Amino acid sequence: MPPQKHTGRTVLIVSAAALAAILVVGAILIGARAGTNTAKSGTGTGSTTGGVTLSTPDQIGSLRLATDQTRANDMRSTMSNIGLENPYAVIYQDTTVTGRTTVVWGGTGSMMARSNRSAEMSGFMTAAVRSMGGNVGNTIDVTPAPLNGVARCADVSGTGIRFALCVWSGYDALLGVLTGGITAQQAAQQLSTLIPAVAQVH
């Protein structure tokens, strides 16, 4: 298979996710160091016991692992440099729509296990969208079965590009999922297969 070339829209989506990752993870670290909202295992809204291992399957439904993971590697390196212990970032390409890209980023660790996951997700989503110069639009709560935790997807407006942002918070993990060219409703359907595929509870 020839190397996949990033289109202009793909570069913008990945760049937006990279910027959002830096700002959002920074906010998480600041909150953790300040001792705010740190959850004890098994307490609080949507909290669960156990931990999560994040993997990168070659294919998830119509999403195939992108050949070029350079920007994802850079995101992981940056998140690690600013203090995240177990950073995660990966880029997928939709095999059914040319140029449609999904970026998944976040990580695992005790600082991700918060007592108020709903508030954490709202903060994550708002910070990520604002870092792109956009606004949070229509928002949909998602049931991340068979995994526990809480998940939410939203349309993003005001950037000149249509895309959707989803956030999942469960166990000791927090993930953002950014996809170009789809609505929040479509993103919610994608999230229901993506999260169980990349997150394994132990």
Task: Describe the overall structure.
With 202 residues, the protein is an alpha+beta fold. The protein contains 4 helices and 10 strands. The protein has helices at residues 8-33, 70-81, 117-131, 184-198; strands spanning 52-54, 59-60, 63-65, 86-94, 101-108, 135-142, 150-157, 163-170, 173-180, 199-201. The strands form 2 sheets. The protein has an 8-stranded antiparallel β-sheet with strand order 2-3-4-5-9-8-7-6, sandwiched between helices. Strands 1-10 form a two-stranded antiparallel ribbon. It starts with 7 loop residues before the first helix and ends with a strand. Residues 1-10 and 22-49 have low confidence and may be disordered.
Proportion of strand residues: 25-35%
The oligomeric state is: single chain
Query: Secondary-structure element sequence?
Result: HEEEHEEHEEEEHE
Q: Can you give the helix content as a percent range?
A: 25-40%
In brief, what are we looking at here?
This protein is of the alpha+beta class and 202 residues long. The chain has helices at 8-33, 70-81, 117-131, 184-198; strands at residues 52-54, 59-60, 63-65, 86-94, 101-108, 135-142, 150-157, 163-170, 173-180, 199-201.
Sequence-ordered SSE layout with sheet pairings:
Layout: H1 8-33, E1 52-54, E2 59-60, E3 63-65, H2 70-81, E4 86-94, E5 101-108, H3 117-131, E6 135-142, E7 150-157, E8 163-170, E9 173-180, H4 184-198, E10 199-201
Antiparallel strand pairs: 1-10, 2-3, 3-4, 4-5, 5-9, 6-7, 7-8, 8-9
